[in-house]
Amino acid sequence: MNANASTSVPVKIHCTEPWGTCNVEGKTVYIDPRELPEDGGKSGEDSHLALIDNTGGKEYDFWGAQWPPQNGLLTISWGGECTLSGNGYDGCSSTATSTPLSVGIIRVSDLMLAIQSPTGSLPYAIAAAVKCSDGYIKPMDGGDGHTQGCPPEGSRVYLAMHDADVDATNEPPIAQAILRTLDEDHYGMILTDTNGGASGFSLAYESDLTYTTFGQPGPLVNTLVPEAAREGISGTNPYNNMYYLSVPYGGVNLANNLKFL
Questions:
Q1: pTM exceeds cut of 0.70
Q2: Tell me, what DSSP letter sits at residue 216?
Q3: Quick check: 48 and 42 in contact, CB under 8 A?
């Protein structure tokens, strides 16, 4: 959002968790009333909300946003403010690692560009969540626990393959573009969060609500899901109004083909 947008209104932030200093406590931000958290503000969900203030050069990230704001007050469980020109780990505290919500998410526009090339990939490391973690490594600011046998958050993980190996899987274009992004010739993924105990890696993607709440078509539903269906990728039927696309990988044992840095 733009803090000077004519449709935005001032809202004061209140954090409820007793975890120390929440750096957005009592701050006023400008929110367009059409905004919605990623899950629509459903009770019991993460209710993440990221606000981009291009004028002020800030990102505000919230976790547990109680939507909608009441009487000019937005109550959140926790959150933070960071600079758009910073190192990416300087206070956007809506996840345990303080990684900005805007960093490393799969954007449909980027993915569609990648699949147009037989050797395409995303131009950044993908943010990923795992079912458990064992501490964290710098530059992350924290983690979600200490479970022995689980990786530390902040780990950079590569698929121990190269582009030629990915090409040899003969998987559909979406899968190949993601696998190339993860392989050793490109960027890999960074473990930034946990996913509530789900198996495997959960890759972060941009919510369609970023667009649909403003009356624009959602690229996930209108572009990516039809393309995934055309390619025969599973998960193109919604479950609880959410899409969980399963990326095939040509029978490669991913668990035995990962490199942690």
A1: yes
A2: P
A3: no
